[in-house]
TrEMBL record:
SUPFAM superfamilies: ClpP/crotonase
Record-stated family: Belongs to the enoyl-CoA hydratase/isomerase family.
Pfam families: ECH_1
Source organism of this protein record: Streptomyces dangxiongensis
InterPro entries assigned: ClpP/crotonase-like_dom_sf (IPR029045), Enoyl-CoA_hydra/iso (IPR001753), Enoyl-CoA_hydra_C (IPR014748), Enoyl-CoA_Hydratase/Isomerase (IPR051683)
Database matches in PANTHER family: ENOYL-COA HYDRATASE, POLYKETIDE BIOSYNTHESIS ENOYL-COA HYDRATASE PKSH-RELATED
The name this protein goes by in its record: Enoyl-CoA hydratase family protein
Recorded GO MF terms: catalytic activity
Gene3D superfamilies according to UniProt: 3.30.300.220, 3.90.226.20, Lyase 2-enoyl-coa Hydratase, Chain A, domain 2 (1.10.12.10)
Length: 245
């Protein structure tokens, strides 16, 4: 089996690619572990100025892998690792993002997508709630817009994701949009970048400190519920869940 994370480097910027296209880059236990290891390597390497988190295939991340879901504690640790990494983390999205994938975006410092991307918090449609991913999402997103997206599970476009605060920007050519961002990071002092990131993420980390235990327990409880079993079974079988009217 090939590694679920690809890695390349160009002028001090390491690009980590979610590379499990067979599962639409869903957050499996193995992908979460591999991404955490790659991020740790980047954080230890003094030659890494910034990290770009991107993907292969047409989906950035389909959310949790329902056949091999990660332990909620491991997902919390991964999201916090992105927030705390002493390097800016920039999400580059050219495909679709669902559920837990939006947690990855919210944990990143800067997130840019193509105009072809789509987004949805689909948890409620399979009997779950966006519990763990709320740790980075809630401090950074507009509450009124988020209520609509959390409660309906409906798909929304990149312009709405920018307005909601889940994206920094969207563009027809995502690489053209990212070029000045990466150039700015390359021209900045590594020590100053780390300290500036601390200022920007303080509120997000307060949410982790306050709510992580409660939301991890909620996630575990919902995953083992009868509604979640029905919702996930219905999703895997390509049918409506029993509660759909």
């Amino acid at each position: 089996m090939s590694a679920p994370i690809g890695r390349t480097r160009a002028r001090g910027v390491d690009t980590l690619s979610l590379d499990a296209t067979g599962s639409r880059n869903a957050l499996s236990a193995s992908l979460v572990s591999a991404l955490a290891e790659a991020l740790a390597d980047c954080g230890r390497d003094p030659d890494v100025r910034a990290v770009v988190l991107t993907h292969t295939g047409t989906t950035f991340c389909a959310g949790a892998d329902l056949r091999d879901p990660p332990d909620p504690h491991a997902l919390v640790a991964l999201l916090r690792q992105i927030v705390e990494l002493p390097r800016p983390v920039v999400a580059r999205v050219t495909g679709h993002v669902r559920a837990g994938g939006l947690g990855l975006l919210a944990a990143c410092d800067i997130a840019v997508s193509s105009t072809a991307a789509t987004f949805a918090f689909t948890e409620v449609r399979i009997g779950l709630a966006p519990a763990v991913i709320s740790l980075p999402v809630l401090p950074r997103a507009d509450p009124r817009a988020l209520a609509r997206h959390y409660l309906t599970g409906a798909r929304f476009d990149p312009a709405e994701a920018v307005r909601t605060g889940l994206l920094t920007a969207c563009a027809d050519d995502v690489d053209d949009a990212l070029a000045p961002v990466l150039e700015g990071l390359r021209r900045s002092s590594p020590e100053a970048l780390a300290e500036t990131k601390r200022l920007l993420t303080a509120r997000v980390l307060e949410t982790f400190d306050r709510d992580a235990a409660e939301l991890t327990a909620l996630s575990a409880r919902l995953f083992s519920s009868a509604h979640a079993r029905e919702g996930m079974t219905a999703f895997l079988e390509g049918r409506d869940a029993a509660w759909v009217v």
